Amino acid sequence: MNSALYFGDTWHRRNFPEIVQFRYPLFWVCLDLHALSKFSRPGLLFSIDRWASFFSIRTSDHLVGQASDLLTKVRDYLSAIGFSGNAHHVCLITTPRLLGYVFNPASFFLCLNSSQEIELLICEVRNTFGERHLYPVKPSKDRGPAGATKFEAFSKDFYVSPFIESSGDYFISIDRQKGRFQIDINLVQGEKLLLETSAVVFSSPLTRLNLMYALVRYPFCVWLTMSRIIWQALRLYSKKRVPLYSFKPSQRNETVVSSQGNIFVRARLMLLKFAQKFRFKLQKSRS
């Protein structure tokens, strides 16, 4: 996989106790971590670890440790978890910063072997309360049709949403065709499919012209992510049958606490507590 821009959309559906779904446009950058030197110089449209670009990727936004480049961070992480496979090639798929700002619900590191098959997928998941969590996921023996990879199920042990309990199992599949990339992530709790998510994007070369197109066509994909999350939270909050769960800071080693001192994170925690108290009083008054 070469460095590229990905344009498409993402779709989410919650199936119970209320059906709620939405679809939004999506803009990602796919970075070949073995060819980052070309982006190390300052550029007006895109760069790595530079402040003066419209779009940028920061090494400090991803993984753990103090390494100064993403590839070293990936190798250090693979060593720390005891990965013994063949990570011949590593690519990062993520939303870039725009004028220094981004909120990234999920980023994906694809560790590929010499045949360009996925040996390991590192899912980097963020919540809106200043935490990010790393899930290393291995492909299942049933790899699916050509270009498709199914992954082993893994437990949900990270608080992402006030409306979803930290339990259940994730099921991920990736379909890579020429010029097209699709990732599906489903959450099963008990025997019920609670959440279905899918992102389908189409690749374009990472050129100045395409970056200018992204700047004109997709800036709101970057800036409106948090606003869209809050809007969907309000929709769920209005559904009386959808439960509301308290935030509990993660104690797991796979979780990185990055910004819980941030004033906006504190404000969201206060709003969550207020929403819980208000719903409790409302329910009590009706009973």
What is the CA-based Rg, rounded? Answer: 19 Å
Query: Which band does the percent of strand residues land in?
Result: 35-45%
Query: What share of residues is helical?
Result: 10-25%
| Order of secondary-structure elements | EEEEHEEEEEEEEEEHHHEH
Coarse morphology: globular
What class do helices, strands and sheet pairing give?
Answer: alpha+beta
Oligomeric state of shown chains: single chain
Mean pLDDT across the residues is 91
* Poorly predicted residue ranges: none
Number of strands: 15
Explained architecture:
This protein has 287 residues and is of the alpha+beta class. The chain is built from 5 helices and 15 strands. The strands form 2 sheets. Strands 1, 2, 5, 7, 8, 9, 10, 11, 12, 13, 14 and 15 form a 12-stranded antiparallel sheet that branches. A 3-stranded mixed sheet has the order 3-4-6. The chain is globular and about 65 Å long. The mean pLDDT is 91.
Question: Which characteristics define this entry?
Answer:
287 residues, 12-stranded antiparallel sheet, 22% helix, 36% strand, alpha+beta, 3-stranded mixed sheet
Secondary structure blueprint with pairings:
Elements: E1 4-14, E2 20-32, E3 46-48, E4 55-57, H1 70-80, E5 89-94, E6 97-98, E7 106-112, E8 118-126, E9 131-137, E10 148-150, E11 154-155, E12 169-177, E13 180-189, E14 192-205, H2 208-217, H3 219-223, H4 225-237, E15 255-257, H5 263-286
Parallel strand pairs: 3-4
Antiparallel strand pairs: 1-2, 1-14, 2-5, 4-6, 5-7, 7-8, 8-9, 9-15, 10-12, 11-12, 12-13, 13-14
